[in-house]
Amino acid sequence: MEITSTIIGAGVVGLAVAAELSRTRKGVLILERHDSFGQETSSRNSEVIHAGIYYAKDSKKARLCVEGNRLLYRLCEQSRIPHRRCGKLIVATQKDEEAILATIQEHARENGAEALEMLSARQIKAMEPNIKACAALFSPSTGIIHSHRLMRHYASRAQKNGAQFVPNTTVSRVEKQGDGRYRVHVVYPDGQTDAFSSRWIVNCAGLESDRIAASMGIDIDRCGYRLHYWKGEYFSLDVPRGFIGHLVYPVPQANHVGLGVHATIDLSDRVKLGPNATYQPDRNIDYSVNPQDRQSFYEAARRYLPGIALDQLQPEMAGIRPKLQKPGDPARDFIIAEETSKGFPGVINLIGIESPGLTASPAIARHVATLMAERG
Ligand SMILES: Cc1cc2nc3c(=O)[nH]c(=O)nc-3n(C[C@H](O)[C@H](O)[C@H](O)COP(=O)(O)OP(=O)(O)OC[C@H]3O[C@@H](n4cnc5c(N)ncnc54)[C@H](O)[C@@H]3O)c2cc1C
Questions:
Q1: What does the alpha-carbon distance between residue 296 and residue 370 come to, in Å, rounded to a whole number?
Q2: Closest CA to 32 of 24, 23, 40
Q3: Is the C-beta atom of 173 inside 6 A of ligand 1?
Q4: Exposure winner among 39, 119, 171, 186, fewest CB in 10 A?
Q5: Residue 321 CA neighbour count, 13 Å, CB half
Q6: Residue 372 carries which DSSP code?
Q7: Domains plus CATH for the chain?
């Protein structure tokens, strides 16, 4: 097979891109350093189909999330991917948070998210007897999805279309050739190396995407491409099935790097609390959960779930957000860029694809296909 398009990384985004590109292009290759797809951030998240509520107006995050939300529900229904449109409550636990809810409602409307409904304390009690809140916003289009089944769907669609998935293959660098193509250097687990050339490079390497861009010769500090890792831990909450039926989020605090410790349900109705957000200055990939964080999770969650007890919380799992900001920096948007202006025509870098990357994955894939079609 002549390789025309090389996708680096088989997380949910790389796989969505592969499924989309292989509909119309031959020679699509997906390289993955692990022995299977979805072994990193794409299987370490809340599995929430976001509505597009909070992201900055006109940002890629907002636009691709709102579009991705609609595409994802359609895909789930057509392809029988397990999901549930369970809805989400953003709860105000004190009076002064009610004004913030009104601002969020208006912001979501501007982003084009499905309309949010303001609920009174009585309406909340009727919907969720275990929640204590004086007001809440209800988002009907927020839901949950089986992320692994989604990835399996993208992978099998890509392979049926003729794309080739190559696991156990780490891209060490990408080098510009003189003929408008790129030389992709790879390393196998036994230390052997190889290289091949490709016209298009789509960098979907998640936590390593900035390093891949740097290996091409892009100055990632000057371009604002350097990633910063923020760990997010989860604790499971040992409660009876049906304890909550919706996703429950606190009102986000100013300068938030996450959405606050929220309560999510999965498709088997297990309840998880989290994630928190801890900056990892040394870029360590450490997925352990510190049991000592139990108290702070408990304090955060019992503001809206007053009936829970500390010993119902158990360390569950962690994921790492590939963010473009350090502590104190303003929030950043996704980078999805065709790099002709930097001297790398045919390279598409996707960097800082944190939340809502899972939700946005089908819309991101379409966006990448459009960038490639525009370039010709
Ligand atoms: C705690 C947490 C909660 C989240 N919750 C949600 C949520 O509820 N809803 C939502 O929409 N989003 C959520 N997200 C965001 C979402 O998980 C990510 O945006 C999404 O998974 C990113 O997918 P990706 O394919 O870009 O990255 P990844 O899943 O990280 O995939 C990148 C792939 O590239 C591979 N790779 C890296 N370097 C190389 C190399 N050199 N050579 C070959 N392969 C390489 C990796 O092994 C990996 O498989 C959350 C994220 C976190 C951390």
A1: 44
A2: 40
A3: no
A4: 39
A5: 24
A6: H
A7: 5-45+148-226+331-375 (3.50.50.60), 88-140+228-323 (3.30.9.10)
β-bridge mates for residue 278, sequence order: 231
Token pair 């003929």 in the structure block, residue: 179
Per-residue pLDDT tens listing for the chain (376 residues): 799 999 999 999 999 999 999 999 999 999 999 999 999 999 999 999 999 999 999 999 999 999 999 999 999 999 999 999 999 999 999 999 999 999 999 999 999 999 999 999 999 999 999 999 999 999 999 999 999 999 999 999 999 999 999 999 999 999 999 899 999 999 999 999 999 999 999 999 999 999 999 999 999 999 999 999 999 999 999 999 999 999 999 998 765 667 788 999 999 999 999 999 999 999 999 999 999 999 999 999 999 999 999 999 999 999 999 999 999 999 999 999 999 999 999 999 999 999 999 999 999 999 999 999 998 7
Ligand 1 atom nearest residue 39's Cα: 49
d(CA 281, CA 327): 10
- 354 C-alpha vs ligand 1 centroid, how far in Å? 7
Q: Which atom of ligand 1 is nearest to the CA of 68?
A: 11
Q: How far is the CA of 135 from the centre of ligand 1 (A)?
A: 34
**What pTM was computed for the model?**
0.98
- Would you tell me the crossing angle of helices 147-160 and 60-79 to the nearest 10 degrees? 80
- Structure tokens of 313? 């919380």
Could you tell me which residues are beta bridge partners of residue 184? 174, 196
Alpha carbon of 324 to ligand 1 centroid (Å): 14
R_g of the chain computed on alpha carbons: 21
Regarding the beta carbon of 68 and ligand 1, being less than 6 Å apart is answered: no
Could you tell me if 109 and 268 are in contact, meaning their C-beta atoms sit under 8 angstroms apart? no
Distance (Å, rounded) from C-alpha 136 to C-alpha 310? 25
Distance CA 207, CA 17 (A): 17
Structure tokens at 68: 């991705």
Tokens 């962690």 belong to residue: 318
Does ligand 1 lie within 6 Å of residue 45's CB atom? yes
